[in-house]
Amino acid sequence: MIRVRVLLALALTLSCAGEPGQHAGAAASPVQPAPVHEGSAVSEPTTPVAEPTPEEPALPAYRAPVANAVELRSGAAFSCLLRVGRVLCWGNDRFHQLGVPTLPTGRGAFSARPLEVEGLSDVRALALGSFHACALLGSGHVRCWGHGGFGQLGDGRREDSAVPVEVAGLERVTAVAAGERHSCAVVDGMVRCWGSGARGQLGDGRFEDTLAPVSVTGLDDVIALGAGRAHTCALRASHQVACWGEDVDGELGRGAITMPAAASATAQLVVELADVAQLRVGWGHACALNEEGEARCWGRADAFQLGVALGGAQSSVGVTPVLAHATEVRDVAPGGFHTCFALASGHVSCVGADYHGQLGNSSEAPAREPLVVPGLAHVRAVAAGESHSCALLESGEVRCWGNPHSGRVGPHAEEHEARQISPVRVIAPVAANGASTSASEDQAP
Known about the structure:
The protein is mostly beta strands. It has strands at 6-7, 71-74, 78-83, 86-92, 110-116, 123-128, 132-137, 142-146, 161-166, 173-178, 182-187, 190-195, 210-215, 222-227, 231-236, 241-246, 263-269, 276-281, 285-290, 295-300, 317-325, 329-334, 338-343, 348-352, 367-372, 379-384, 388-393, 398-402, 420-427.
């Protein structure tokens, strides 16, 4: 059985302006006096007895995600590993997305060596956006750090933060997602989102930003989330997927693109998709795995990132999910313009754009079908960024390949080169005592 998980996807720094919408609030009804029935004898004025207030159903006991989870995630130009409740990050740090206040900031800031995010413990789940990240804690609360210019950190401000800050008003969270400029969380089966809403990606029926979490309308059975450039998708208990937000490239998977808005601020059911066990969302495309390990993807397809060569006038758009990988897949990672698959065999295959070697082969041309990445075995999970890829091995080792700039594939890559084709070690395997070292401390590449 494939374990239900969700990525956060990844996104580039392109932004799209949205059309403002209107939100009508419901007016409260005035309290009506108690009726007097004919035939009732009343000797003196009395105070009407108030109707008993129905008790709200008790919420089920909160169950945090499993402890000691191991997750590998990538943002646009950085990656993070969650292990034993701790988070290690490496790569670009322009907006403090590595979570280390002592690092220098600015356009050229980065660390090729994995560093532990400060101020976090008992982390149960991890989500990376383009330039920010969010962590779900065992307490059911969420903390975010990095780029906060659109309120995506959830602390009521529009400022970056190198220190994880708590998202205001959230508790009992069971899943979290981070997009380019927005973030979302699942609370008791319902979804709350905050940050940029210009393309409807907050799902509350409006096209407006918000600094505090708002409720997504029409969903109450969500078990997992993913967020992309300006859209969000949710996996429901029915094993169906609903998406909302930008739909320029078929991101919502509803079978057609409605122009001119090409966006929806309310959740839309992804067509021709059922029995979903895992959902992952990239910058402009998303992928889902079923119980048999088949991967179906939809959305932007201009670099063949959906795993097939679409024909006809809509060759750059996949408005309906297509079979991207029929071989048994245990994990899938949609990135910027490419997608990687962790196979049940322990190998990895990738498809789509390859201009920085993110497919792990020597060809710079986009791949129209998945190609096996040489030199990788015993892989349990994959992650994909804008132009780099990473794999988590069963031993706990992390290897990355693709664009070596800004430290995104670790310290063993050649920074001055344009492509790192072969996977190189970033984090060493876990030792018998449970400890591990980064690649800079373990000299084996």
